[in-house]
């Protein structure tokens, strides 16, 4: 049964003293780093999806288990129809819908409070390929978006969502909260915040 596999010879580690960290391999990301560094590319990582019929609290649990703050909503034919974020579920949107429609919170489904794809803004893969993290940060700061989808064209000109960029991923990569960046008045101040690990 296991004939195609082989035992590997394990090594003694008593003479190993050091741990490698990513900063020793890659230069730390900055505002001038390529925007592609913060894009979740669906060629490499599958999008986390949810049915519009799922209850909002179940959707929130699904987000937590997948370590994401946004889900792509698909219909019964797996077509992209919108997105829902943790903020949508945890905020006032769900209760407002429940009250307006005279139903309990437990009856509110993803499709009731999601953002339909016609409401979602995106960037093309070409734009992102030619941009820096600073460009993305400025764009998202200006629009107030926490997530931006990235669109490209497949065979025969079929448009598809190629990936997503999230404010939280940018914050994590630069080790600076987006809220602190919003307080900065100039790009020079933002660069100073990044250089000093979140302090002005």
UniProtKB/TrEMBL annotation:
<dbReference type="InterPro" id="IPR000644">
    <property type="entry name" value="CBS_dom"/>
</dbReference>
<feature type="domain" description="CBS">
    <location>
        <begin position="39"/>
        <end position="103"/>
    </location>
</feature>
<dbReference type="InterPro" id="IPR046342">
    <property type="entry name" value="CBS_dom_sf"/>
</dbReference>
<dbReference type="Pfam" id="PF00571">
    <property type="entry name" value="CBS"/>
</dbReference>
<keyword id="KW-0677">Repeat</keyword>
<dbReference type="InterPro" id="IPR050511">
    <property type="entry name" value="AMPK_gamma/SDS23_families"/>
</dbReference>
<protein>
    <submittedName>
        <fullName>CBS domain-containing protein</fullName>
    </submittedName>
</protein>
<keyword id="KW-0129">CBS domain</keyword>
